[in-house]
From TrEMBL:
This is Strictosidine synthase conserved region domain-containing protein. Residues 1-19 form the signal peptide. It comes from the Eukaryota. GO terms for molecular function: hydrolase activity. It comes from Gossypium aridum. Transmembrane segments: none annotated. SUPFAM superfamilies: Calcium-dependent phosphotriesterase. Keywords: Signal. The keyword Protein biosynthesis does not apply. GO terms for cellular component: endomembrane system. Pfam families: SSL_N.
């Protein structure tokens, strides 16, 4: 029983020493962290109605347009999921310019020499002109572009 008491006293002394060590020599500062105050105007951007002026082009006319490009005459092109290349003329009228049997037409670009370059995820790189469609690249290093 005396051994048990000695152990208990030793344990209490140990815990007290440990607690005093933490209270007086702890590297953790108990100081309250003061964050800089922000002015209310800095956290809330000024309101505006810029997005109210956005005009949706081709709403209801275009099925899944993926990209847009503008040619030198100012006509805007887009390739749709249905395989259509649609052209928006400067006078605001849409034209079904070209139809291609594909539902994977993605990015488009208007090169300086005219026509329209279209990336097709299945068939490769295509060039559309008023005369028709040319496949510019369907393979790279012997591997089919996919
Ligand atoms: C709009 O412009 C295109 C290209 O110049 C022309 O073919 C089309 O007839 C015009 N549409 C209207 C409604 O003026």
């Amino acid at each position: 029983m005396a051994v048990f008491k000695k152990c208990l006293v030793f344990l209490l002394v140990l815990l007290t020493a440990f607690a005093l060590q933490i209270i007086f020599f702890s590297p953790i500062s108990p100081d309250i962290l003061e964050l800089p105050l922000t002015s209310p105007s800095a956290s809330v951007p000024p309101s505006n109605n810029q997005l109210q002026k956005v005009i949706k082009l081709g709403e209801g006319l275009l099925e899944g347009p993926e990209d847009v490009a503008v040619d030198e005459d100012g006509a805007l092109y887009t390739a749709t999921r249905g395989g259509w290349i649609r052209r928006l003329h400067r006078n605001g009228s849409w034209e079904d310019w070209k139809k291609f049997e594909s539902n994977t037409l993605l990015g488009i670009a208007t090169p300086k020499r005219g026509g329209l370059i279209v990336c097709d995820a299945d068939k490769g790189l295509l060039k559309f002109t008023d005369d028709g469609v040319t496949v510019l690249a369907s393979h790279v290093d012997g591997s089919e572009i996919r």
